Structure formats: structure tokens, C-alpha cells
Amino acid sequence: MCFYTGRYASSHGAQWNNFPLRVGEHTLGDHLRRAGMECWLLGKTHMKADAEGMVRLGLSPDSTIGARQAECGFDAWIRDDGLWGQGPDGFYDERRSPYNEYLRSKDYPSQNPWADFANAGLDGDQIASGWFFANSDRAANIREEDSETPWLTTQTIDFMEKNDGPWLAHVSYIKPHWPYIVPAPYHDMYGVSHVMAPLRHEAERHNPHPVYGAYMQNRIAAAFQQDKVRNKVIPAYMGLIKQCDDQLGRLLDHLERTDRWHDTMIVLTSDHGDYLGDHWLGEKELFHEQSVKVPLIIFDPRTEADGTRGTTCEALVESIDLAATFVEAAGGEVPSHIIEGRSLMPWMRGETPKWRDFAISEYDYSATPQAVALGVAPKDARLFMVFDGRYKLIHAEGGLGHLLFDLRDDPNEFYDLSGSDSHDDIVDRLYGHLAQWGRRLSQRVTRSDADIAAMRGKSLRKGILPFLVDGNEVDEDLTQFYRGKAPADFTKGE
Amino acid sequence: MCFYTGRYASSHGAQWNNFPLRVGEHTLGDHLRRAGMECWLLGKTHMKADAEGMVRLGLSPDSTIGARQAECGFDAWIRDDGLWGQGPDGFYDERRSPYNEYLRSKDYPSQNPWADFANAGLDGDQIASGWFFANSDRAANIREEDSETPWLTTQTIDFMEKNDGPWLAHVSYIKPHWPYIVPAPYHDMYGVSHVMAPLRHEAERHNPHPVYGAYMQNRIAAAFQQDKVRNKVIPAYMGLIKQCDDQLGRLLDHLERTDRWHDTMIVLTSDHGDYLGDHWLGEKELFHEQSVKVPLIIFDPRTEADGTRGTTCEALVESIDLAATFVEAAGGEVPSHIIEGRSLMPWMRGETPKWRDFAISEYDYSATPQAVALGVAPKDARLFMVFDGRYKLIHAEGGLGHLLFDLRDDPNEFYDLSGSDSHDDIVDRLYGHLAQWGRRLSQRVTRSDADIAAMRGKSLRKGILPFLVDGNEVDEDLTQFYRGKAPADFTKGE
User: In this complex, how many residue pairs, one in chain A and one in chain B, have their CB atoms less than 8 Å apart?
Assistant: First the structure.
């Protein structure tokens, strides 16, 4: 939602999976369409519509406006959230799955071929579900070209053939998301010898911060603390990534073949990293670099970007910056009273703009077992990260204190310095940044700075004249409607 | 807007006059109607509709939903914002004025009888406009019963006769708002002898905080620093208030006569105070008690409130608490993920709930000449007050520093202590409250705490089973859809 709105999580409020984005929140689609660019979704988004808010405002999901509200501002070319799990309480996601429909059209004999073929291997003649790590080294029981990543690539090529644009296409691959299983030849392209040792340290387990401690003890962490799990999962994970690379190659080849290289900007990123056992953790929670630092590669074909081609930008870039970047790339003006991120285009052009001094990341763990384990109220189950390029402060609400890492002296983030008095000044400084950020202007979305400048003094010329002693203080034309002969006298009574 | 939403200004974003309240923002009307209570507006509101947002969402102001969005969640029985000023650039407010229509129907011979009669006196046969302080001691050229306050009272009685309810009626008098002029007999009921000396001190003018300094130098302050202005304005102001008192009496008599005393809760309050020359200031800006401390009288007819009748509550109550109070009074449940205020009903019942430790007030002066004079960017032209019952810290964004008052030792707030090192700990403590408040959860409006608790663990029973080694870790029914004979084998290629 931060990518889609260009706003911080606590500004847009959809802070976790299945927290609906409130109706009316401005999205990239709103801004781009205003700048003359279409905005399409292909693949996965976990955007949850604010169905209650839509009913309250009388918006039907069948209308164009309603559909965009329900799809986070995108026009959905093909949406498939890619999690077609089924259990005793039914399907996790009750929408239609274009991907499952595709597989059925290809004669995969199942009501849920996503589960039975794309995300399962074979154990003899038995289903070996990719949900279970024990099966992650098996080949998925599917033709490679029918698996999720090639399928979405084919859809994207089809989209590009049918739409001249200008458009933004959010091509959103579900993989390498779990279930961790990949078809041949990717399933055995990597093996145990490719699995790096986990980056973790015994010091981390000694009296850890309570939230970190709770996460180290959960089911995910317990799994990834085991070599047998890592040795099964990571080669499959690498295979899934290699498949993504290859499919990205297909997309790039298509752009080259159709001569659209020169006018297509390409941005590759991800919404989170993955611990995979580092720091005794699994998955994507918390703020170590493994989780919070995501890839971001921007290819801008324009000559203005030639000077920075192939270079790396070390600035404190945030996910919210992409929305601003895309609005500028589309030729629009970034509405800085709505989008909190900043356009990266100056960096692309080799400029060195005055930039933010600290990056923020937020995490709401209210819906997790960790919040229950810690006895933290939902409103307090929130974490904030402030990083100034060297020091990283993590602040936990609910009186749960801080973590502090010095990434220059401790790039692996093994040693929490928050308990050391000698770092009080650093904690104070970073906490001050966080306090200032907390008071940021994020909701004045109906008035731009320019609107405000234009408001100043306007009422005077529309007859609002308070605080004059006798009217002679201002030009005569301002008081013209308040002078003259009285049309009647009512002061004497009836 | 804080009263109407039960949310802080920086949560709802409509931080100043004519900053539209964003479409979809939850209002008192939404909450009350859900609890089975109507929500009506009579009189003034400076709510500005988010016309752009309504167009974006396809909402017509003519529809019921659209009209409520445009009227801040109220059904408008009769809306009249009461500022029918006219100048060379036209009318300040381009809506229709029911009050002007009423006056014309009563044969006041003018296109704008609000200006020519209700808010003007006579100087011989000439209009003596109430806009000018020099005329404030004249009688308004209108029959008293036709002036604004009696007119709205009559409208309210008419409303009550036609609507059985249950309803909330926001009866919003424009007066004693400027223009300062009142009809006989109120115009000479008070005189110079009733004007108290201004509460101000030379110490305040010595090296003041830059924002305070800028306000002390504006046109409003300059006017109210003069005795000749105060001596003209304050008697008229007192007359206007006495007229309000008398008209409130009419309303109360009507309730008594119609036997609605026993089931009508009455709340009297105001949206700001007035300096009237105190602290060298005029009007309502900044955070001295004259401005920020408003009257709040609640009459609850129920026996549960008998124990506190006639008593005063010293708790740190905020304007946002009223919305919560009204929802509880209507029998609804206060949606604490949307309404940030807290119901006052426990205090009414004589309970002593655990309460907030500090009160917050906010002020956005971006559209004022003071922001221009100080060279402050619109986003930084904001002030925050934190008050713990004794100390009051005022924090100015944009690096403009603090003010600190000790209301126990300096109840008149003459001495800014922020420059004194001996108060560093107090500043730190209050600033810490402000920082915590800044990170409050204010935008997660689509998920309640109860929703979040209900989300926990639900996905497991809907087939989302990550982080299992072989599936034997969980009950067999959870994995039933991921086991069994494979329907086909695609692993061998075509």
C-alpha cells in the first residue's frame, strides 16, 4: 500500500495484510491518470477493498470508479493474488483465480490445480504438497511454461501487444513466495552446496528485546533455525528466483523485439526481503537489512539518465518514493500534500538533491501471535525503524523500549547497543527524528501548498473585514458594500 | 471538524477554515445513524465539502449520501454559515442564505439585509456597518426578534416541533462572532464600566517566541491593544452573549413546556475562546487559556447523572471527546479505531475512569500573514500544545522552538520558561508525550481492535499453511486438501 499510495503505512492506515485501504485514499492510479497515463495491474496484489466504506459511499464494485477503489487505483488487466489455499473453513481467497482457470483450460484435472499441480510435486503417485518443506526439493508437477511465473509473463506480453499506452503496468509475480516448490529444470539447479551459512550470532539470543525475542520463538523462526529446512527451502527459493530472472529476460526480449526499449522505463523491486534463517528468524518481519532492504533497479531509457547508467545510489530511498518517481516520469506534478515520497528522477539525472536525513519503516504486528504472546494491545503492537545511514533505531510502542544497531561497526547487526549509556545521545537524536516524523503533515490532502498560498488574504476582497476601527484603514473599494444611505430604519420599534 | 469527527486535526486533515474535510472521513452522523439516531445541523458550520474528492468518487451533492458528505455528516435542517460579506471580488460565501431570505420575507429592503440591517446600525440616515469597531456601540438596525440568534432559536423550536427523534441537533449560533453589533436592548446593556482590564504583561513583549511575536504584531492584535477598541467591542460582545443566554432560555422553556426535559441531553460549548486584548492579542489563535479553554456544560437528564449534577469536572477533556460521548449517549459502541476522543459519560455517572495524562491542541497557521512574515513553509506553519494540568508546552514546527508555561505558579501565563535550563526535564517529558501522540494510530479506520483479534490464526483453517516441515505438526483436517493421489503426472514432460 505504501508503494501504491506513496504514503507511509500510518498515513494510509492499511498497515497489514487484509487491513482494507480506506475508500477515497489517493493512489498512484489517480495521480497517473490525471497525468494522462493508464495504470494497470497484472498479477498479485494483497490490496483489500474497503467494502464497508464503499457501501457507505454508495460505490458499486461494478462501476469504473468502484472497481478502481476496489483494486487500489489500478485497472485490473488480470488480477490473481496467487494464494489459493483451501482448508476446513473454505478458501482463503474467495475470488475467482484466472490462473486456476488457465490451468483447467490446459487440462490439469483438478478443481484447484494451483494446489495440486503448480504447488505440489509427486511422491510416487501421491500429491507431495509444496506447503511442506520436506517436499521443496521435488519438481512441481506442472509443465514449466504453465507455472505461475511464465504464465504471468505471457499475460504481460499479451497486455503489451494490445495496449499502446502510455501506461504503467504493475507486473507483480507471486513467486518466490511460499509454497516453496518449482518445476524442472529449476528444482535441482541449486543444491545444498549453494546454501550460505545463516548470518546469526549467539549474542542475539542473550536477553533480546522482547519483540525480537518473541519472533525468534515463533513457528517460522523455529523452522528456519534448522539446517534441514534451510537446505530444502533455499535451493527451491533460488530456483524460483532464477525462473523469475529468465522470465524477466523474456519480457526484456519482447521489448527489444518490438522496439519499445527506448520509451519504456523498467523498475524492478520487491516489497520485502527474507531472513531465511539469518538472525534466527524466518520470513519478512522486523527491520534487519535482510528484511527491510529491498532490491531497487531502475532503467530509464532517456538520455538524461545516461550519466548514471550502471551506477548505484546510496541515498536513503524509501518505497514511497516510487509513486512520486512515476508521477514525474509521466510528466505530472507530484502532489506533495498527498504523496509523502520524493521523486527519484533527480538521482537518475545525476543530480544530488537535498535528501532526507533518515529513512523510516513501520511494522504493525497486532494481528500476529507475537502480540498475543507479549500481551500487547493492538494499538501498541507497532514498531518503527529510523535509520540515518549508520545507526538504526527500532522503537517499540507500548513501553517495550528500543533496539539500536551501528551498521558501520556492526554491519551484521548482531549487537543491540540500546542498553549502553554511551549511546544515549544517538538514541535521543534518532528518537527526535522519529518524533518529528510522527508530527508530519499527512492528512491535509484536500489543500496543496499552492492552494494555501492562494487562500491568503482572499477573504478581504470578498467583504470579510474584521478588525477595522472605521474602515478608513483599507482601500475604499473594499468597504463599498458597507456604506451609503440606509434603506430603512428599524431601530425605533414598530 | 474535531467536534464533528471526534478526531484530532492532524488526523482528519481539515486543519483550518476552508480546508475541505476529505471525502469518506467518518463523522458523528455516520456513527449516530448506525446507533439509530438522526444527526441534524441548524445554523453555522464552516465545514467545506471536498468537492474534488466527491467528483473523483462520483458522488453528487444532490444524493442523500453526497449531501451528507458535503455537510460533514449532518442532515442540514437549515444551514446558514452567517458570513454574508461582499466585496469587489464578490460574496465570500456563494451559497444561498436562508437567513437573508427570511429577512427579505420580512420586508427588510435590501439584497443583503444581513449586512445592511442585522450587522449594521445607523449614523443619521447612513449605514453604520458593524464591521467597524467605531459602530459597535450602536443598535443594530433590526427588530430584535429578527436578528440572527432569535431567528435560529425559532428555527430550532420549529425543528423540535416537527421531529420526534431520537436526534442530535447541532444548534450552532454564529453570534457573538464578528461583526460585533447587537440590536436594542442589548446594545447598551453593558458599558465601559463592565470592561475588565486586559490580562497582559510587559514581560510578554520582551523577546517573545517568534510565532507569538508575529501574532502580537498583526492587525487583530493592534486593534485589541487599544482601549478605545476594547471599550467599543466588549460591551457589544457582552450584549451578544446576553442575547444568546436569553435565547437559550427560550429553548429550555420550550423543552420544559413540551415535557422533553426528561429525555433531552443538552450540551453547551464553543469552538474557541477570545483574547479580546489579553496577552496583547485579539481573536482565537494560539494556546493561552483565553483561547484554548472553552466552556463545556453537559446536562444529562438521566438519574445516573444525578450524583454529579452541578459539579465541575477537572479532567483533561478535549473537543474530540464529545463525539464519543454522543455515540455512547445514543446507545452505540464508540468505534475506538476511528474516534480518538473518549466518552465523558463515566464522569457524568460519577466514575473516575483512568484518563489521559495530557491534552493536545493543534494550530495550523499556514494560510495566515504570520506564516508569510516568518517565512515558514506551509507544512511547517504548525503549532502543538501539550498540557498536563500544570505545565503547558507549545511546540512550533520548522525549528522555531518552544514556549513553556507553569500554570500553577503563573496562572496568567505571562512567563515563558522555555529558555530556563532548570525546566529541561519538564520540556523533555512534555515533548515525549507529544512524540508518543504523534505516533498514535489514527488511520487504521477500516479495522477495529476486535476485527484484528478475530483475524488471528484464521488463515490456517483456510489452507494457508506455511512453515510446516511435513504437515504432521498440525491437525490432519488442516492438510486434507493437500494430500491424496495425484490426479495426473506432468513431471515427465510431453
Answer: 367
Please report, for residues A34, A37, A168, B39, the alpha-carbon distance to residue A165 in angstroms, rounded to integers and kept in the order given: 14, 7, 8, 47
- Three-class SS state of A376: coil
Q: What is the ipTM of this complex?
A: 0.94
Q: Is A180 exposed, middle or buried (0-12, 13-18, 19+ CB in 10 A)?
A: buried
DSSP reduced 3-state for A403: strand
Q: Do A42 and A156 meet the contact criterion of CB atoms below 8 Å apart?
A: yes
Mean pLDDT by 10 residues, chain A (494 residues): 97 94 96 97 94 95 92 95 96 95 97 98 97 97 98 98 96 97 98 97 96 95 95 98 98 96 96 97 95 97 96 97 98 97 98 97 95 95 98 97 97 95 95 97 96 89 91 93 95 75
Beta bridge pairs of residue B91: B86
Among A89, A142, A179, beta carbon nearest to B490: A142
CB contacts of A85 in chain B (<8 Å) are 459, 462-465
- Rounded to whole angstroms, the Cα distance separating B263 from B259 reads 9
Q: Which residue has the cell 524492478?
A: A268
Select from A199, A279, A277, A178 the least CA-distant residue to A231: A277
Nearest Cα to A285, choosing from A224, A240, A230?
A224
By three-state DSSP, how is residue A123 classified? strand
Cell numbers for B325, please give them: 460521548
B488–A441 CB contact, under 8 Å? no
Please name the residues between 454 and 473 in chain A that touch chain B, using a CB distance below 8 Å. Answer: 455-471
Length of chain B: 494
Answer whether B459's CB lies under 8 Å from A85's CB: yes
Question: A198-210 burial by CB neighbour count: b if 16+ within 10 A, else e?
Answer: bbbeeebeeebbb
If you count DSSP H runs as helices and E runs as strands, how many of each does chain A have, helices first? 17, 13
Distance (Å) from the C-alpha of residue B492 to the closest C-alpha of chain A? Answer: 9
The one-character DSSP state at B25 is -
Beta bridge partners of B266: B299
Q: For the segment B439-452, what is each residue's pLDDT rounded down to a tens digit? A: 999 999 999 999 99
> Cα separation of A77 and B81, whole Å?
47
When computed from its CA atoms, the radius of gyration of chain B, rounded to whole angstroms, is 27
Question: Chain A contact for B52, CB < 8 A?
Answer: yes
Separation between Cα atoms, residue A65 and residue B58, nearest integer Å = 7
Q: How many CA atoms lie within 13 A of B30 on its CB side?
A: 21
User: What HEC string does A226-251 produce?
Assistant: CHHHHHHHHHHHHHHHHHHHHHHHHH
Fill in the DSSP letter of residue A396.
E
Nearest to B155 by CA among B144, B145, B165: B145
Nearest Cβ partner for A87 among B122, B467, B481 = B481
Nearest one of B15, B390, B163, B38 to A439, comparing CA atoms: B15
Tell me the shortest Cα–Cα distance from A74 to chain B, in angstroms.
14
Residue from A253, A484, A491, A384 nearest B143 by CA: A491
How confident is the model over B364-420, as pLDDT tens digits? 999 999 999 999 999 999 999 999 999 999 999 999 999 999 999 999 999 999 988
Q: Which H or E element spans position A219?
A: helix A219-224
What are the grid coordinates assigned to A428, written together? 535521543
For A4, the grid coordinates are: 501504491
